[in-house]
Amino acid sequence: MAKLHFDYIIIGAGAAGLMLADAMGKDSFFKDKSILLLDKDAKNINDRTWCFWEKGAGEFESLIHKKWNHILFRSSEFFKRFTIAPYTYKMVRGIDFYQEYLKRIKGYTNINFKQEKVVRIDEDEKQVTLTTSQKTYTADFIFNSMFSFDMAIHQKKYPVLQQHFIGWIVKTEKPIFDIDQATYMDFSVPQKDNTRFMYVLPFTKDTALVEYTLFSENLLPKKEYEEAIESYLKNQLGCSEYELLETEKGSIPMTSYDFKEHNTKRVRQIGTADGWAKPSTGYTFMSTSKKIPKLVAYIKTDKPLKEFNIKNRFWLYDLLFLDVLHKNNGKGHQIFQKLFKRRKPQLIFKFLDEQTNILEDVYYIAGCPKLPFIKALLKRIF
């Protein structure tokens, strides 16, 4: 097999890989650098959706499929529709993102996108050798977004939960949805000793994504997710007649495990493979978009890739939250219930965006049940 050399190889054309390739493509610093983007898939199907909240119009505005100005929170004891201004809750479809970013990348003469499956990565002092199902490449540096739970579950110091879900896009016989309201969390479903909720994103009055989501350690049989969605449509939404248009499923890691042991001088994990999914929520898209500029700026310094660090105080907050959920997973709904009862969603969004100051942090944390978090903190200290 003929070897081909690149300055940089990016593995994975998901959110992290495409954002990084685009950032490098439009930066004059990299104009003389050769870049290869690899993915085993053609990225021509709508395999996921990303949601986030944002003030005003942002850099992804042209890709927004739907936005909502209100969110609904529901539990067995609390129910409220919130206005979230100045924030808007927004959704980007995977297919729209892929098409736009692959079109951009096609316009960069120094970037090649190839559909090949990565088989092996070998590193020596001078370069990295990457073997795919079709060719062998060499590179000065590799950015790898391929994630496996094996990367995190080999250790016991940090809990590893999953945000796992199956979602149905349904068209109902009657108009039953409020098109300006996203159901952010509905904990009225049976918890079964887990943290379980429904998530509903209406597109029209009779079409919506209805998703059954868990924050827990283990996946469920497919049938259990589907039965929960069917029951919710019938019993909570009063809908027994509907057409199933699309399905989606996924599992996002929720862990404060530090992935740095997988980074080397020439190979850097990115995206979910480097813990860029917000540990306490699983939200990944905007978290990734904020980290990419920092990574690009760091690449220009020519320092070892493994030394790039983005950890801050919110890492500790996330760790304590996951410690609590890991120990008492069935009580997760109580944490969210108290939080939404006591604090405005604007503060919750600001905190989860890691934009709050210390005083706001303290006020936010005081809205949570105190005893479980104090116990988790003491256990970490001692």
Task: Describe it.
With 382 residues, the protein is of the alpha/beta class. The protein has three domains: 161 residues, 3-Layer(bba) Sandwich (FAD/NAD(P)-binding domain), CATH 3.50.50; 94 residues, Alpha-Beta Plaits; 69 residues. It is built from ten helices and 17 strands. Strands 1, 2, 8, 9, 10, 11 and 17 form a seven-stranded mixed β-sheet that branches. The termini are far apart. The model has no long low-confidence stretch (mean pLDDT 96).
- Strand % is 25-35%
Spell out the helices and strands N to C: EHEEEEEEHEEEEHEEEEHEEHHHHHH
Radius of gyration: 22 Å
The largest pleated sheet is described as:
7 strands, mixed
Give the termini distance in whole angstroms. Answer: 55 Å
Mean residue pLDDT? 96
Give the low-pLDDT segments.
none
CATH architecture of the largest domain: 3-Layer(bba) Sandwich
**Secondary structural class:** alpha/beta
* Oligomeric status: single chain
CATH class of the largest domain: Alpha Beta
Helix content: 25-40%
CATH topology of the largest domain: FAD/NAD(P)-binding domain
Number of helices, where a helix is a run of at least 4 consecutive DSSP H or I residues: 10
CATH superfamily of the largest domain: FAD/NAD(P)-binding domain
The domain tally reads: 3
| Strand count | 17
Shape: globular
Using brief descriptors, characterize the structure shown:
single chain, 382 residues, alpha/beta, FAD/NAD(P)-binding domain, Alpha-Beta Plaits, 3 domains, 7-stranded mixed β-sheet, 10 helices
